[in-house]
Every structure is written in structure tokens, then in C-alpha cells.
UniProtKB/TrEMBL annotation:
<dbReference type="InterPro" id="IPR005496">
    <property type="entry name" value="Integral_membrane_TerC"/>
</dbReference>
<feature type="transmembrane region" description="Helical">
    <location>
        <begin position="12"/>
        <end position="33"/>
    </location>
</feature>
<dbReference type="Pfam" id="PF03741">
    <property type="entry name" value="TerC"/>
</dbReference>
<feature type="transmembrane region" description="Helical">
    <location>
        <begin position="72"/>
        <end position="90"/>
    </location>
</feature>
<protein>
    <submittedName>
        <fullName>TerC family protein</fullName>
    </submittedName>
</protein>
<keyword id="KW-0472">Membrane</keyword>
<comment type="similarity">
    <text>Belongs to the TerC family.</text>
</comment>
<feature type="transmembrane region" description="Helical">
    <location>
        <begin position="45"/>
        <end position="66"/>
    </location>
</feature>
<feature type="transmembrane region" description="Helical">
    <location>
        <begin position="111"/>
        <end position="128"/>
    </location>
</feature>
<feature type="transmembrane region" description="Helical">
    <location>
        <begin position="194"/>
        <end position="216"/>
    </location>
</feature>
<keyword id="KW-0812">Transmembrane</keyword>
<keyword id="KW-1133">Transmembrane helix</keyword>
<dbReference type="InterPro" id="IPR022301">
    <property type="entry name" value="Integral_membrane_YjbE"/>
</dbReference>
<feature type="transmembrane region" description="Helical">
    <location>
        <begin position="134"/>
        <end position="152"/>
    </location>
</feature>
<feature type="transmembrane region" description="Helical">
    <location>
        <begin position="164"/>
        <end position="182"/>
    </location>
</feature>
Length: 225
């Protein structure tokens, strides 16, 4: 049977490994996006957000080769991820005009949007490991979903105990954004000519996100006072 075929099983294991290794950032996004929700809504945001994100990722994997042909896709995705990192860092959830249901929907949209933006490397890796077999991708993702969900819950619990971890989480997203930009194929001549950018850009991205987020938070505090 195909499901007992060694190559089939090996491909599934490879896909699960890829999804878990590259899924750490996604777990951080899920934790950041849902940290301000009431306890009764967090599980809904995590489950719905992750479920929709996985469905979209399956579709993206199916068209991965076409995605590679889109000019500056990774560059734009990296810039979008910087925006997401700052937004998650400065979203204190204290706006009295936003109701709980809107917060839940907003958290789900953020999780899905961030997963799509961050999922390019994941999608390309999965497409390669699956050999173009979408069934393999679906099985691998379904198996790894519970681990990603529980990972996000652990991160969320830790962030509540140690709020400074929110900045660390945002820094990881900023680093991921820099890696996406550095991975843009059409910009490789520039990065090869100025190889120091491989070291400077991640640092600049992280500092930009942290400083911007901190300043926005300070302005909010002064406004409240």
C-alpha cells in the first residue's frame, strides 16, 4: 500500500519536521495576537486562526512554483512582517470602543495574515519535500497542527508571566523579516556586493521594531496620563 511505502513515510516525516522547525515564528504570532483576548476567546482565536492559516498554506503550497515567479515577493513580505511585528508589539487591547467579538476577529485575521506572509519559506520547503504530492502536504500539516497550537499556548502562558518576552517575540519576527528580504532572489546582486548587509540588516530590523514599539507604547502611556 502507498501509505506503507518507505518513501511515503519518509516524506511525511520530512514535511512534519520542516513545518515544526519553521513553525516557531507562527506560534509566536499566535501567542502575540491572542494575548489580550479574554480567556474564553483565546482558544477560539488559536484554533480558528491556525485552522484557516493551514488551509491557506495548503493552497499556497499547491501553487508554490507560480509564487516564485512573482517579482520581489519575499521583499514585500518582509516589509509586511515588520509592520505586523510592530502592530503586535503596540496592540495593548485597551481600546474601550473595541468589543470582544471584534477583538477575536481581529486576532484571527492577524494570525492568518501573518502566517501567509511568513509562510513563503515554509511553502517552498514543503513543496520540495512533498515532491509535488499535495496529499503528503495535507497529512504533514494536519499532524503538526496540534503541536503548533500547544506551542503557542505555552508561549502565551510564558508571556503573561514575563511581559518582556513580548519584545523578544517581536524581535524574532523582525529577524524573520530580514531573512525574507535577504532571501529575495532579485536583490541578490546587491547583497553579494555588500555582504555586510547580511549582518547589519537583521540588527537594524530588530532595533527598528523594538524602538518603534517602545516609543508608541510610551506615547500611549503619556496620552492616558
Amino acid at each position: 500500500m502507498e501509505f506503507l511505502d518507505f518513501e511515503f513515510i519518509k516524506s511525511i516525516i520530512a514535511i512534519i519536521g520542516i513545518d515544526l522547525v519553521l513553525g516557531g515564528d507562527n506560534a509566536i504570532v499566535i501567542a502575540l495576537a491572542s494575548r489580550n483576548l479574554p480567556l474564553s476567546q483565546r482558544n477560539k482565536a488559536i484554533i480558528w486562526g491556525t485552522g484557516l492559516a493551514i488551509c491557506i498554506r495548503i493552497l499556497l503550497t499547491a501553487v508554490a512554483l507560480y509564487l516564485l515567479q512573482i517579482p520581489f515577493l519575499q521583499f514585500v513580505g518582509g516589509l509586511l512582517l515588520v509592520y505586523i511585528a510592530i502592530h503586535l508589539l503596540t496592540d495593548d487591547g485597551d481600546d474601550p470602543d473595541i468589543k470582544g467579538s471584534d477583538n477575536l476577529l481581529s486576532a484571527i485575521k492577524t494570525i492568518v495574515f501573518a502566517d501567509v506572509v511568513m509562510g513563503f519559506d515554509n511553502v517552498i520547503a514543503l513543496a520540495g519535500a512533498s515532491g509535488g504530492n499535495i496529499i503528503l502536504v495535507i497529512i504533514g500539516l494536519i499532524i503538526s497542527v496540534p503541536i503548533i497550537i500547544w506551542g503557542s499556548k505555552i508561549i502565551l502562558f510564558t508571556m503573561e508571566k514575563f511581559p518582556v518576552l513580548v519584545y523578544i517575540g517581536a524581535s524574532i519576527l523582525a529577524y524573520t523579516a530580514s531573512e525574507m528580504i535577504l532571501g529575495e532572489e532579485r536583490l541578490q546582486p546587491i547583497f553579494e556586493q555588500f555582504s555586510i548587509l547580511h549582518y547589519i540588516l537583521p540588527i537594524v530590523m530588530i532595533l527598528f521594531v523594538i524602538i518603534t514599539g517602545y516609543n508608541v507604547d510610551q506615547r500611549k502611556i503619556k496620552t492616558v496620563k
